[in-house]
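Narrative of accomplishments. A recurring question from our advisory board has been how the design workflow behaves on a single, concrete structure rather than in aggregate. To address it, we present the structure tokens for one chain from the evaluation set, followed by the sequence designed for it. No filtering or post-editing was applied between the two.
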């Protein structure tokens, strides 16, 4: 159904309002079509909602997480992509990622807020009430998600409600408005208020490409995890694991070639002819096209000009008997067990990223998975460790591994919370490789696990950027120059 809707998103472009290149929140530009003219019915709101969905993209986060941390190495066809910035741990207000993160999500908030404002002026006909409610519910939940993504990267401390947060944008500002940062607690309050308002409005749809009550519960579970409110996180995650059983081995493969949706709670669908059906900016967090184009120029095989490859420190964690090996490592890869001492390691050890080989006949284009039940199992494991229930945490890790190996696996044993956190972090590294989690996972529990970015010596020989402690200030992204230059009341994060 979503594929058909995306074909009519172009009809909404007449309603769209562009974001100023000077300031992502200066959006009320003269001469533009206003909401009162653009939206006159529930059908118009539906088009507006679909247009707002098209503003949501995970490829910048996928690219940044992979290159800035230790998921990737420089590929055999790399022509300098990423070397001068993220791969060297260079992160400052002029970097691409914070600019793209800021402008993309405030553009999304702009479009969502216009739908919500317009909805207040529309009285649905009797037969349209349920659809009207669902549109409002989806819009509120999407607004919460955009605020959460911004906060996750930009707040220096997600567990401290008094720390610097982001700008709450739950209205349509005027062009001359400048806004300060809200606190982290205030932003979380706004997010949870939107989610609480959204939940009773939403239709409990089974389509993973639309926001549903399950999306709301999954986002609340992730929020509680990030805030270290573990009791709440565990309760929410438990219900979702029950509703979305883990994929078996064949289902897991189908999940990533987009022929199945087992264990997917929500995803951003990508289809031929939509706004993301293009290569995007290779080697840059400004990507915005096919997810696989973050790693290769042509296709997802060894002959597809891979300019980034799987980092050796990640590859060395993968077990060939694990289905995640099959999904992440393309079978055309060349594997040299003596890579560390080989004089021609880059020519004989080419580890091709296999997670985004393409779908619908389009190489490198795949749906972007946002919430999966595997995350919920790992949330439960982390909550158990926080409660010092190390045996319980081991049981959840075994549950996930049993599904991924399609056979019973040994029950882990943890002598301490630090060891348990480290094992969970490694499991998350394998499970969510190239899905945009690693940076935030290290930010959250890297210190507790005594683990930071750690690249294999072969992978960092090119620039010496081998490790980065999880306590480093760069695990809070900076406010970008695009906002600093336009907003005199904005406050920068410490040490930038």
């Amino acid at each position: 159904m979503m594929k058909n809707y995306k074909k009519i998103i172009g009809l909404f472009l007449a309603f769209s309002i562009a974001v100023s290149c000077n300031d992502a929140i200066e959006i009320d530009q003269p001469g533009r079509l206003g909401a009162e003219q653009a939206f006159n019915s529930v059908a118009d709101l539906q088009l507006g909602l679909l247009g707002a969905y098209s503003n949501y993209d995970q490829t910048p986060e996928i690219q940044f997480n992979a290159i800035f941390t230790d998921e990737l190495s420089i590929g055999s066809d790399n022509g300098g992509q990423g070397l001068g910035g993220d791969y060297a741990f260079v992160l400052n207000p002029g970097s691409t990622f914070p600019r793209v993160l800021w402008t993309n999500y405030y553009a999304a908030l702009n479009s969502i807020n216009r739908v919500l404002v317009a909805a207040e002026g529309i009285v649905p006909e009797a037969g349209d009430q349920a659809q009207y409610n669902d549109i409002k519910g989806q819009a509120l939940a999407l607004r919460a998600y955009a605020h959460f993504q911004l906060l996750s990267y930009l707040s220096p401390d997600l567990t401290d409600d008094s720390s610097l947060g982001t700008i709450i944008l739950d209205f349509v500002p005027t062009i001359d408005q400048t806004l300060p940062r809200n606190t982290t607690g205030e932003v979380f309050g706004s997010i949870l208020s939107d989610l609480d308002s959204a939940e009773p409005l939403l239709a409990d749809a089974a389509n993973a490409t639309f926001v549903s009550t399950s999306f709301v519960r999954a986002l609340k579970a992730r929020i509680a995890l990030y805030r270290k409110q573990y009791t709440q996180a565990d309760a929410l995650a438990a219900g979702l694991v029950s509703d979305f059983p883990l994929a078996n081995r064949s289902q897991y493969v189908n999940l990533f070639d987009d022929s199945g949706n087992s264990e997917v709670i929500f995803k951003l669908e990508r289809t031929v002819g939509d706004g993301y059906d293009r290569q995007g900016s290779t080697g840059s967090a400004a990507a915005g096209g096919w997810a696989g184009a973050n790693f290769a120029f042509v296709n997802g095989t060894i002959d597809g000009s891979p300019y980034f490859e799987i980092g050796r420190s990640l590859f060395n964690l993968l077990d060939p008997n694990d289905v995640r090996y099959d999904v992440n490592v393309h079978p055309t890869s060349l594997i040299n067990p003596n890579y560390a001492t080989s004089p021609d390691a880059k020519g004989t050890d080419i580890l091709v990223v296999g997670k985004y080989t393409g779908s619908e006949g389009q190489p490198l284009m795949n749906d972007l998975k946002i919430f999966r039940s595997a995350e919920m199992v790992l949330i439960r494991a982390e909550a158990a460790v926080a409660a010092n229930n190390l045996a319980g945490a081991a049981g959840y890790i075994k549950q996930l591994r049993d599904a991924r190996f399609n056979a019973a696996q040994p029950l882990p044993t943890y002598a301490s919370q630090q060891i348990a956190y480290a094992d969970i972090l490694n499991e998350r590294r394998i499970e969510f490789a190239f899905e945009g989690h690693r940076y935030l996972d290290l930010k959250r529990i890297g210190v507790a696990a005594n683990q930071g970015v750690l690249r294999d010596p072969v992978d960092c020989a090119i620039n010496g950027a081998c490790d980065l402690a999880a306590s480093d200030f760069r695990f809070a992204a900076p406010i970008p120059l695009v906002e600093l230059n336009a907003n005199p009341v904005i406050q920068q994060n410490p040490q930038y």
